[in-house]
Model the fold of this input.
Amino acid sequence: MIDLKLDRVSKKYRIRQRDPSPRRWYRGAFSQSVAEVWAVNDVSFEVQQGEVLGIVGHNGAGKTTILKLLSSITTPTRGEMTIRGRLAALIEVSSGFHPELTGRENVYLHGAMLGMRRSEITRKMDSIVEFSGVEKYIDVPVKRYSSGMYVRLGFSVAAHLDPDIVLLDEVLAVGDVAFQAKCLDRIAELRKSGRTIVFVSHDLASVYRICDRAILLDRGRVLLDGEPRSVIDQYQKRTFADSSATMTAEMDSQQPARCVNISFQTPESSDSIRTGYPMIARLGYRATQRILDPVFRISLYWPSGYLCAQLTSESSAVPLLLEPGVGVVEFQCPVLPVVPGLYRVDIAIETRGRPLDEQQRCATLFVHAGRPAAGDFYIENACSIRTEAPRFG
Amino acid sequence: MQDSSSASMMTGVHSDLSTESATALAVRPRSVDASVRVIRPATFSLSTVVLGLRTLLHYSDLLYTLSMFRLNVRYKQSALGWAWAALQPLALMGIYTFIFAHVTTVKTGGIPYPIFVFSALLPWIFFASAITNSVQGLIAYPNLLTKMYFPREIIPFSYLAAGVIDFLIASVILAFLMVHYRISLTWNVLYGIPILMILAAFAAAMALLFSAVHVRFRDVGLAMPFVLQVWMFATPVVYSLEAVPQRFRFFYLLDPAAGAIDNFRRAVIYGKPPNITEMAWAAAIATVSLAAAYAYFKSSEAIMADII
Done:
């Protein structure tokens, strides 16, 4: 059964620009020149019941606009959307809060804005308060809350909605790591119970982990629609092509060194990267001056946001020296110990504790199944059996 | 080595959380016969109104919660609290009594001027504050409009509902004044209820209209205090409709607020039944303008999040 259907949906935004010439004084409000932007352009897709759809794309690709259209915050300029069932949009979890009201009053207010009945909120109040972990302060005005408590309470209300379709924006992924983990767990629960989920995120690792299907948006159009891995692959290729170009363009003379690209390969370059097999990481850099003792770091992050492992040039015995120009730092890993999955990659260059370049979420690493591994890491081992003579009596 | 051990420890924290949330939240099985909604570009049409009213009904609990919240928040951190609902009409009563009973005189038909003006100030303040609050209230929290969906008319309606409570508080003062001036209560006071409903309908229409335009043109908010001041003097608040020369009376018929306020005073203070012609006009105009204003509001609601 189809839960969501978008049929040739388009959304036009008019961006008003004030006429900077003195004419604006007498031509008044109507003189503004209007630039038109199609944030969503002729988009059609369907989401089956129980399916988890991920929407990826650059900033401004129209991801959030699609969520806003689906949640009725704004309406389409053209086209038609069909929604089957109760829909809840978790676009920002605590925007319905009023600072003067207590936590409890805000739960009622925010819950009602999300479309819950008062009786429903009363019934779920204990559970909401427990989940948020702010029991002690529930009757205190929320202006006295820390920002963490604020977000937790807001998410707790939203988590108690019982929707058929859930829209999740990436803002949910903001917050501390424990909170992110909680969000992801709740999504997993909803998914298990057959809810339809539309998930918008920059975090490709989460999209890969959660979604059954993914859509790649580019300038308001659907570029790809299919299996998450191939969509993410394509997206990365495009992003990589884009960002390496911008990386060099942005380089200013003030910055002594900068990473310009990164790639992960195997010695036989056609092969895919597998757990327990060799891997080579190549970090391209550009330096404008001579740098003593440079340290290169490649950090791999779990989908949950925790640091999984780090490749660092500090571990090399020979002190390094960087001459001005372009080059490549190569990390040879004889055995890749990380388990299969998608990892987020951050890169950094520093010298003697002073950071020269830091780029977060600049790439992802796909690790395919290789040697059997359970738990968090593969432990390189040589296993053999030594028989001992049985001792009788 | 150190990194890997800390990472696995962190993942341990992660799995603890998942068990906690599983116990705190049970997920019900998905409803089978889910309703189907179709969203199309918004238009200024009857179907927009019908669809809007259906959604509004679904969100009726929000209207209640938000109205209570208006009352709660308004008097938080104020020393006088609820007394403010009565103070404003009392202060205006004082100054108008000084001007229109002592500096110059206004014909009241034998009714003491303070209660004459007070009985009209109550419905007028209800009307005017519903409009002012709605106009400011709709844009007061842009996040609500850009980050969440609920029928936007609930914001103006909640100010209107909160205004009813303020009106009831101030009515207690009116009752005291009536006892003080020995004005006897008749059954005709019950006409006050339908009269106030007409006034509320017209206030709702004006609140919807002005607040929707205000999202686009902030000129409305700037003009509002002055417009309402002119409107008050164009309405029989400080004088009675009977004192208005016959040739101007027609214009008063066009303003449901004028008809409602004058007839409210007539029913409550004078103990007479209202003028049926005036009330029929007022009711008709209020109904038509409410329907039109609602349709306009709903059709512009679609882009409020885009232009706020």
In short: Chain A touches chain B through 71 residues (CB under 8 Å). The first helix of chain A runs from residue 24 to 27. Residues 256-367 of chain A form a domain with the Coagulation Factor XIII; Chain A, domain 1 fold (CATH 2.70.50.60).
